[in-house]
Amino acid sequence: MDRSLLAALNAERAARRAAVVVTDFASGRQRLVREAEVGADPLAAEVEKAIRSGKSGIAATSEGEVFLNAHLPPARIVSIGAVHISQALAPMAKIAGFDFEIIDPRTAFASEERFPGAILHAEWPETVLTARPFDPYTAVCVITHDPKIDDFPLISALKTGCFYVGALGSRKTHAKRVERLQEAGIPQSSIDRIEAPIGADIGAATPGEIAVAILASVIAAFRKRKMFADRRGETEPS
């Protein structure tokens, strides 16, 4: 790989954007396809499949075979709330291959004792997201039931185009949440992306069952997610 292509690839990786390196077997020539450029590429279908699955592989073209080397940012789940559901979700997310983080300013909840080995931010979301902003490879699960903690990251997730946004609460709770988001200027099309009640409809009742339901929804959303080019126009500027 030549230096300029490597530098371009590293720039995409540093920005947590997906890209595919296409290598022609016959000539050895290589080129970089960024996720935002997939739709215009002659191998659009094959490159999109590689990005969606995260798997590298061989593709046939009219000029011979090429190798598609997929580079995806590690998908992550961010739980807003260090609650019992998060305690159950943390090990499940790791097993499923997701990075997992917890944000909760309540130090009595966000403690190493309750979440051993987890990436834990015992700070307000406004502070954490300044240094570690959301991106399209992030799933956000809002589960504190406290608007003072939940609303800022929820708005940020919708503006950023996170691949999954879910919020815990009853229909009545969500209706009040929708009113607050509308007052904050969030368009209804973005609000409609929120899965509320959070998680797949499996009749979950216990924290462990709700964690399973959340993980099921996150996996489905990640595997069926829209590509970057298809998401343009859906998000609002930060």
Automatic annotation (TrEMBL):
Q: Which residues form the XdhC Rossmann domain?
A: 80-217
Question: Transmembrane segments in this chain: where?
Answer: 202-222
Where does the signal peptide begin and end?
Answer: none
Keywords in UniProt for this one? Membrane, Transmembrane, Transmembrane helix
Highest taxon of the lineage: Bacteria
Q: Which InterPro entries match?
A: MoCofactor_Util/Proc, XdhC_Rossmann_dom
Q: What is this protein called?
A: XdhC family protein
What organism is recorded for this protein?
Answer: Jiella avicenniae
Origin organism lineage: Bacteria, Pseudomonadati, Pseudomonadota, Alphaproteobacteria, Hyphomicrobiales
